[in-house]
Amino acid sequence: MKRKLIAAIGVAGMLVSVAACGSDDKASSKDPKDRKENLTVWLMGEARTTWPELVKDVNAEFNKKYPNVKVSVQYQQWGDKVKKLDTALGGDKFPDVVELGNTETMQYILNGALGEIDTKKYENSDTWIKGLKDTCSFEGKLYCVPYYASARLGIYNKDMLKAGTGSDVLPQDEAKFLEAMDKVSAELGKKDKRASSLYYPGRYWYAAMSYVAAFGGKIATYDEGAKEWKASLSTPEAQQGLTHFVDLVKKYNKADQTKDEQDHTNVMANEKAAVIYGQAWEAGNVVTGENGNPKLEGKLATAGMPGPNGKALPSFIGGSDLATISKSKNQDLAEDWISIFTNAKSMEVLASKNILPNNEKQLEPLKAKPETAAIANAVPDAWFTPIAPGWAAVEKEESLEKLLLDILKGTSVADATKKADAEINGLINQKA
């Protein structure tokens, strides 16, 4: 899920120095049975709708140790969670535990809002998925705990694929995949000139950067000598990936090529696309979402998206993390609750629901499970956005979307990436 980054908190109490005094040593020295605090936990709505029994069981387990601590779980929605959290952190009624999308963590780390995490308290910490752990890390310290992972993959209409190729299995070699897309395009074109075999919106930067990663490029790299991030989209590898992506957009997208991916599930629901590139849960949106098409029930499948050089297309790693709030007086309780909620037993519950757990060990069996194989196998080689102080500003300015639009409108890849690098360099090291 694309989660928009909001401007930093800017609250005096959110300075890093707060983390050092946020814990209450006197409270932590008490007998657990004598603790009588209230613990407020903010989780996103998925926990209430998809694994409510896990929340209930974790609270029960926590209260075995702390029978007099009241746990209040409050469910949030992605659309307004960041705004609500920023407001809460500016006052004196804030959660002790908060779930953050992994693109949201850095702004709170840099503002000192999150408490430092002690990995010794967490059962799976030695095998946490690196892409998630990285989103919690800054200057050698850890400020949140990986919760669950997700990745993008190919979502396709089996009937459309079979009508064009005679098979409803998505080829996993890119050359064969593109041959299949050519055949599907020809078949779709007989009935609907606006239907796309491979629907890649031109400003879909998550997809574009996946091709950049496939050719060995990066959005930006960290210069250890200068102690700053530097944009690197002008490198030959990044330019090759961008060229490859835009060529696919121009050849296979028969609709408006200048759009982003926000409505690509609607395009598939309207049977205007045979293949899209999205998160696994988006396949459900195609059928049962607000603008879904129930007639496509049972007609969709998922598979790894084939990439260049004989490998699967690297995916952006999505997911959630859990953090304590640095100015909470209950950080020790918060860490204990998180440790139960993310232990092996809890991760097994998520895995049973085809949700990717936070660690490599429990992820491994899901790589062979038909329902999860494609997305689970995409996680180990996934990429992530630069963990830089000004990344929120880069997203806010839509630097990558503007880059792609420039190329689509005819600017050379060399000129467009030079311009984008200059803009990103002016933003990426800014501290809010």
Give me the number of helical elements. Answer: 20
In the CATH hierarchy, what is the superfamily of the largest domain?
Periplasmic binding protein-like II
- Architecture per CATH nomenclature, i.e. the level-2 architecture of the largest domain: 3-Layer(aba) Sandwich
- Strand count, sense and closure of the main sheet? 8 strands, mixed
- The level 1 CATH classification of the largest domain is Alpha Beta
Unreliable residue runs: 1-26
User: CATH topology of the largest domain, which one?
Assistant: D-Maltodextrin-Binding Protein, domain 2
Mean of pLDDT: 91
Find the count of extended strands (DSSP E, 2+ residues): 12
Q: How far apart are the first and last residues' alpha carbons, in Å?
A: 24 Å
Backbone CA Rg: 23 Å
- Secondary structure: helix percent: 25-40%
For the record, the count of structural domains works out to 2
Shape: globular
Q: Which secondary-structure class do the elements indicate?
A: alpha/beta
Strand content: 15-25%
Description:
With 432 residues, this protein is of the alpha/beta class. It has 2 domains: 12-150 and 317-378, D-Maltodextrin-Binding Protein, domain 2 (3-Layer(aba) Sandwich); 151-216 and 230-316, Periplasmic binding protein-like II (D-Maltodextrin-Binding Protein, domain 2). The protein is built from 20 helices and 12 strands. A hairpin with a 4-residue loop joins strand 8 and strand 9. The chain is globular and about 75 Å long.
Write a compact overview of the structure shown.
The protein is an alpha/beta fold. It has helices at 17-21, 25-28, 45-49, 52-65, 81-89, 105-110, 130-134, 158-165, 174-189, 205-214, 236-252, 264-269, 282-288, 331-341, 344-352, 360-363, 373-378, 391-396, 399-408, 413-425, and strands spanning 38-44, 70-76, 97-101, 137-138, 141-142, 145-157, 196-198, 220-223, 228-231, 273-279, 300-303, 317-324. It folds into 2 domains: 12-150 and 317-378, Periplasmic binding protein-like II (D-Maltodextrin-Binding Protein, domain 2), CATH 3.40.190; 151-216 and 230-316, 3-Layer(aba) Sandwich (D-Maltodextrin-Binding Protein, domain 2), CATH 3.40.190.
